[in-house]
Write a structure and sequence with these properties.
The chain contains seven helices and three strands, in the order αααβααββαα. Helix 3 packs across helix 6 and helix 4 packs across helix 5.
Length: 172
């Protein structure tokens, strides 16, 4: 049976320890602050809502199954997470044009305005946190973070159990 090489033997174990620690600290701080932005918008939208609204904005109206697949989560999770967004008027449920029994989720005008507001606030926070960085450093960080998220997604895909959740994309 082939074995997977131990990553700590291929690289500096101290560096990998530091990397895993910094990723854990980042995850905790990101969750604590929700990287929500600045001003009144700060902490005003949870991660699941933001990601769902963002996906509907980027990909357009879609059914629950398609949304779940594109986000790498279970359909029941999407249904549960979308319910409060529908209740607050951020997402509209409509009938599928070709199959009236199917439901299509769509970003409402109110949802679009709210998403734009949150994006602007988060953009302001990113500018504030990296204000003393050179533009090349911001670009490098974004490139490396995207690459890191892609590697996590690929690993999730490779280790997904049959019938399990669909692997998430880096944007999820």
């Amino acid at each position: 049976m082939p074995t997977t090489p131990d990553m700590t033997t291929a690289s500096d174990p101290g560096l990998l320890d530091s990397l895993q620690h910094q990723v854990a600290v980042f995850a905790r701080r990101a969750e604590q602050t929700r990287l929500g932005g600045v001003g009144q918008v700060r902490n005003s939208m949870d991660r699941a809502a933001y990601l769902l609204l963002n996906r509907l904005d980027k990909e357009g109206p879609m059914g629950v199954k398609a949304l779940a697949a594109s986000m790498g989560i279970d359909s029941s999770t999407v249904t549960r997470q979308v319910a409060p967004l529908v209740d607050t008027g951020l997402v509209k449920r409509t009938s599928h044009p070709e199959d009236g029994r199917a439901v299509v989720l769509q970003l409402s005008p109110r949802g679009q305005a709210r998403l734009d507001e949150v994006r602007s606030s988060r953009r302001e926070l990113m500018a504030e946190l990296t204000e003393d960085w050179a533009p090349e450093e911001r670009e490098s960080f974004c490139t490396l973070l995207t690459r890191f998220n892609s590697a996590l997604s690929a690993r999730q895909m490779a280790h997904a159990a049959p019938g399990g959740e669909v692997p998430a994309t880096p944007e999820s």
